[in-house]
């Protein structure tokens, strides 16, 4: 017979400590609510041992193989006899995905229940009293704990404001370098690697991309490059501007432009968690296409060319004006440039295989946009007379015949230096890591200048 627990009550689950336990969660939530379950493996002080001590959808098994999470079933399986001897408690938690950002709280849950099974027999259950909760976005639902050689199950129902980060802090996970420096050495704590500033952002992104392994892998590689320039928490709007002149045919038909666009999308996911980037196209004309997103990215460039066939001619200036008008429509002035201030900068990845037919207008657009928080990252694709195939990576990417783009990189009479340029003979001759490093070569310096000039709030 199942024991229905009230908040704060407990019951013995395993007297021997040798049993296999299943903890199952179930919930009914309002539309657009997403809940995540986690299990924190804790020592006697109630602290995690290391980053493998948190079991969740993206880390479904513990280091000692004792705890596993089956996300589709919302179940944790625990082999008590395999647990690290220093583990004396396992806390089962719920968090509302992006609860703070979406203004969603546990008080609005319709129902949530946690059950404990041993050999398919239900031993205990606890139904959350949602009416007792208010603005909380995280919750310790229940816990298994060791008491005098017996494992007991206790109903907790303790809510937290602040989502997953609040839970991490509660269990001793250091979410910043500053926090790690203040933890008393007598307390066993964990500093999660590669997460110097709140793990919630990366965990949020990994959740969005968990069923998109290609983008998730790219996003992690982009994250490494952003760490090098201290921009892991940076936010920006990201756009990709693609050449659709006829000479680009082979690059599109081979899939190379699709794969390059996916790499830029992954960078966009790091800078803006809406999971999409703006897309602009240029040949003889300029076009503002639909956004590329984590939902529509497969075969995106193929569909794009079906709607916007390749064109004769290459005009940079028209599309640059289109981009400026889209982000800052009221500030553009050819005669009297206006210093524009915005909440977020705009990062534009501009890809071409040829020089422009409107150099004067392009120069005007680059100079005019130097008063706006737009950064132009020019990437040229094509064979060069300075073949640097055997001269090393940086010699290769710097060698080019794209003299006009090189000129834009050092164009005089700008408010601030707002452009960078590199070229490659093939977009896939550089590794993903090398590409992301190149994309961040000058952007951090531009950000500093833009802030000094009060172009960013």
Describe the structure.
- The protein is of the alpha/beta class.
- The protein folds into two domains: 3-196, sav2460 like domains (Lipoxygenase-1, Sandwich); 209-452, von Willebrand factor, type A domain (Rossmann fold, 3-Layer(aba) Sandwich), CATH 3.40.50.410.
- Helix content is 28%, strand content 28%.
- It has 14 helices and 20 strands.
- The strands form four sheets. Strands 1-10-9-3-7-6 form a six-stranded mixed sheet, with no helix packed on it. It has a six-stranded antiparallel sheet with strand order 2-12-11-8-4-5.
- Strand 18, helix 10 and strand 19 (374-381) form a beta-alpha-beta unit.
- Helix 5 (213-228) packs across helix 7.
- It is elongated.
- The N and C termini lie far apart (61 Å).
- The relative contact order is 0.09.
- Mean pLDDT is 85; it is low at 176-200, 385-391 and 396-400.
Task: Name its key features.
457 residues; alpha/beta; Lipoxygenase-1; Rossmann fold; 2 domains; six-stranded mixed beta sheet; six-stranded antiparallel beta sheet; 14 helices; 20 strands; 28% strand; elongated
CATH topology assignment of the largest domain: Rossmann fold
Biggest sheet, spatial arrangement of strands: 1-10-9-3-7-6
How many helix segments?
A: 14
Strand content: 25-35%
| Structural classification | alpha/beta
Largest sheet composition:
6 strands, mixed
Note poorly predicted spans. 176-200, 385-391, 396-400
Q: Quick check: average pLDDT?
A: 85
Radius of gyration, CA atoms, in whole angstroms: 27 Å
Mass-distribution shape: elongated
Task: Summarize the structure in short.
The protein has 457 residues and is α/β, with parallel strands linked by helices.
